[in-house]
TrEMBL record:
<dbReference type="InterPro" id="IPR010611">
    <property type="entry name" value="3D_dom"/>
</dbReference>
<dbReference type="InterPro" id="IPR002477">
    <property type="entry name" value="Peptidoglycan-bd-like"/>
</dbReference>
<dbReference type="GO" id="GO:0009254">
    <property type="term" value="P:peptidoglycan turnover"/>
</dbReference>
<dbReference type="InterPro" id="IPR036365">
    <property type="entry name" value="PGBD-like_sf"/>
</dbReference>
<keyword id="KW-0732">Signal</keyword>
<protein>
    <submittedName>
        <fullName>Peptidoglycan-binding protein LysM</fullName>
    </submittedName>
</protein>
<dbReference type="InterPro" id="IPR051933">
    <property type="entry name" value="Resuscitation_pf_RpfB"/>
</dbReference>
<feature type="domain" description="Peptidoglycan binding-like">
    <location>
        <begin position="23"/>
        <end position="79"/>
    </location>
</feature>
<dbReference type="GO" id="GO:0004553">
    <property type="term" value="F:hydrolase activity, hydrolyzing O-glycosyl compounds"/>
</dbReference>
<dbReference type="InterPro" id="IPR036366">
    <property type="entry name" value="PGBDSf"/>
</dbReference>
<dbReference type="Pfam" id="PF01471">
    <property type="entry name" value="PG_binding_1"/>
</dbReference>
<feature type="domain" description="3D">
    <location>
        <begin position="128"/>
        <end position="186"/>
    </location>
</feature>
<dbReference type="GO" id="GO:0019867">
    <property type="term" value="C:outer membrane"/>
</dbReference>
<dbReference type="InterPro" id="IPR059180">
    <property type="entry name" value="3D_YorM"/>
</dbReference>
<dbReference type="Pfam" id="PF06725">
    <property type="entry name" value="3D"/>
</dbReference>
Length: 187
């Protein structure tokens, strides 16, 4: 049990990845730093679009970093004056939890070839996510901004910081597409 707790703590260690399409508090924080240092104008809105990517590239070029428009741990350390990114301990929408950055896709029981049941035997439905159980253990409760609360009840055919978000219909899953954002681990 202690080994599992240590492993889970390591899996949720602080890291940052802000790139085109990213959303959330990490993006807002990076935007704020870019605004303070004169690389971005306007307000920090938490959405990484073309202006934020251009500002990151401008910063990277000015600091002699690899110019890729992505703010990972290395770019963040320079942007923040040598600090390591510390994710917020509490979600701004009052959902307590530890922030965790993921790449997400979507699925439904209506997808061709999918089962109507999850790996744990429950029905595939809104409120379920598929995970790599080595990163997010089955049974973990999460909060996904714009989606709501969900439980890791399914296993995806992927590894690492990726989740598959369940929807009730194929159309909803298709509309979700692929996104990068922060989720909050509730327990």
């Amino acid at each position: 049990m202690l080994m599992l707790i240590c492993f889970c703590s390591a899996a949720f260690a602080a890291a940052i990845l802000v790139k085109d399409g990213s959303r959330g508090q990490a993006v807002k924080h990076v935007q704020t730093l870019l605004i303070e240092q004169g690389y971005l104008s306007g307000e920090a809105d938490g959405v990484c679009g073309p202006q934020t990517v251009a500002a990151i590239k401008k910063f990277q070029e000015a600091k002699g970093l690899e110019v890729d428009g992505i703010c990972g741990d290395g770019t963040y350390r320079v942007l923040s004056g040598g600090k390591t990114y510390e994710p917020p301990a509490v979600d701004p929408e009052t959902h307590a939890g530890t922030m965790f950055y993921v790449s997400a896709t979507a699925y439904s029981a209506q997808d061709p070839g999918n089962s109507v049941h999850t790996a744990t035997g429950t029905k595939v439905r809104h409120g379920v996510i598929a995970v790599d159980p080595a990163v997010i253990p089955l049974g973990t409760h999460v909060f996904i901004p714009g989606y709501g609360e969900a439980v890791a009840e399914d296993i995806g055919g992927f590894h690492g910081n990726h989740i598959d978000v369940a929807f009730d219909t194929y159309g909803e899953a298709l509309a979700f597409g692929r996104q990068n954002f922060e989720i909050y681990i509730m327990d």
